[in-house]
Specification:
Blueprint lengths: L3 E7 L6 H8 L5 E6 L6 H6 L4 E4 L6 H10 L5 E4 L4 E2 L2 H13 L6 E10 L5 E12 L5 E3 L5 E3 L5 E10 L6 H13 L6 H13 L3 H12 L6 H17 L3 H10 L8 H13 L3 H12 L11 E2 L6 H12 L3 H14 L4 H18 L23
Parallel strand pairs: 1-2, 1-4, 2-3, 6-10
Antiparallel strand pairs: 4-7, 5-10, 6-7, 7-11, 8-9
Helix pairs in contact: 5-6, 6-7, 6-8, 7-8, 8-9, 9-10, 10-11, 11-12, 12-13, 13-14
InterPro entries: Glyco_trans_2-like, Nucleotide-diphossugar_trans, TPR-like_helical_dom_sf
Enzyme class: transferase
Organism: Paenibacillus oenotherae
């Protein structure tokens, strides 16, 4: 069986740290907590879990802090988490099995990272991360902000173990402060930094400025196609908020330059046609989404509901608007399989059954009875 050091960097995490450590402390052989300047009860909480607590002077560089934390590890493998991450019970069980059976030749284990959740508690958006790595490989973190662990070589294992992100608070101001300091120090933002800077501008609703940064990024070299695809999605989101629908659609279609069509982009394109009340085109793109497999090894952000219930919900609406109520009913039923307790879907089912029964009986709708399903709001962008 392998041994595992859990390495974390923290600062003022008293609200969430115990929740995180409760979910993982008994799975690992060592807990290393690198504190970058807490003034609350963070260290006190960490000590209750027999963590080794080490201070690190914060230098506005997340990669530096994470590399320092990795350097303190003593076990054969290193796992990293943020304080607002947790392992759900099913993932704890999977992790224990992995720990007991992981072949020694594996250098990195990729796990899913669930970022948001739907009303049934299922993952709605997520990505993947190199989450457990062999210490002897000396893998390093890069980038002061939006840091990433570079695993460019070695034996990588892909698993369905998930870390669930239960975010508390908003870090956008902190991230923007770090970017602005880099700019003030004379560092020109390029590549991934330019992309992530644009993301921060979106979070602060500076959409016109974000458009400029995304455009600059997309004009640069393609080092990682996933970033360019997501930049197209975020650019579309900006144009949505700026009311430029033509450019929104163009931005989404631009993503096909970098990868084959994906369900999340097809759904966003379909919604563009919904806004135009071009029901047949919206139906085409939602049905296309249903025929696509989720990427097997994508490390980028995926809108996971586009591979489950969202196309069915939207197809129910589009078919109803087009007067095809039997198809609307069928897709509402498929959506209910994913969200059996959703009140809107259950109400749709009742209303559609009533209308279809009247039609099958050769009757006419009575005044006041619904002819079409109500609109449902969907995010204007892909993510």
């Amino acid at each position: 069986m392998i041994t595992v050091s859990l390495c974390m960097i923290v600062r003022d995490e008293e609200e969430v740290l115990a929740r995180c450590l409760d979910s993982v402390a008994d799975l690992v052989d060592e807990i290393v907590i690198v504190d970058t300047g807490s003034v609350d009860r963070t260290k006190e909480i960490a000590s209750a879990y027999n963590a080794r607590i080490i201070d690190f002077e914060w230098v506005e560089d997340f990669a530096a802090a994470r590399n320092f934390s990795f350097a303190q590890a003593t076990q054969s493998y290193i796992m990293w988490l943020d304080a607002d991450d947790v392992l759900q019970e099913k993932d704890r069980e999977k992790f224990l099995k992995l720990k007991a059976s992981l072949p020694q030749e594996v250098d990195s284990v990729v796990m899913e990272y669930h970022l948001t959740f739907d009303m049934a508690g299922n993952a709605a958006a997520g990505s993947r991360r190199n989450r457990l790595v062999k210490r002897s490989r000396g893998y390093r973190w890069h980038n002061p902000i939006h840091e990433y662990l570079e695993v460019s070589e070695g034996n990588v294992m892909l698993t369905d173990i998930a870390v669930s992100h239960k975010r508390v608070g908003d870090h956008s101001d902190r991230n923007m402060r770090i970017f602005k300091k880099q700019i003030a120090d004379g560092r020109e933002l390029q590549g991934r930094d330019l992309y992530y800077f644009a993301n921060e501008l979106v979070d602060q609703k500076q959409y016109a400025e974000a458009v400029q940064s995304y455009t600059r990024f997309l004009q640069g070299p393609v080092e990682y196609s996933e970033d360019h695809m997501l930049a197209c999605s975020k650019l579309a989101e900006c144009y949505h908020h700026l009311g430029q629908k033509d450019k929104k659609l163009e931005s989404l279609l631009m993503a096909f330059k970098y990868e084959a069509p994906r369900a999340d982009f097809c759904c966003s394109i379909a919604f563009c046609f919904e806004e135009l009340e071009a029901w047949h085109l919206a139906i085409h793109w939602y049905n296309m989404a249903l025929g696509l497999e989720k990427p097997a090894f994508s490390m980028g952000l995926l809108n996971l509901v586009c591979w489950t219930w969202l196309p069915h919900v939207q197809l129910c609406i589009c078919y109803a608007k087009a007067g095809q109520l039997q198809q609307a009913y069928e897709h509402n039923e498929k959506a209910l399989r994913h969200l059996p307790d959703d009140a809107n879907l259950r109400d749709n089912k009742r209303r559609l059954e009533e209308i279809l029964q009247i039609q099958q009986a050769g009757g006419q709708l009575q005044e006041g009875e619904p002819e079409q399903m109500p609109e449902q709001e969907q995010d204007g962008g892909n993510q």
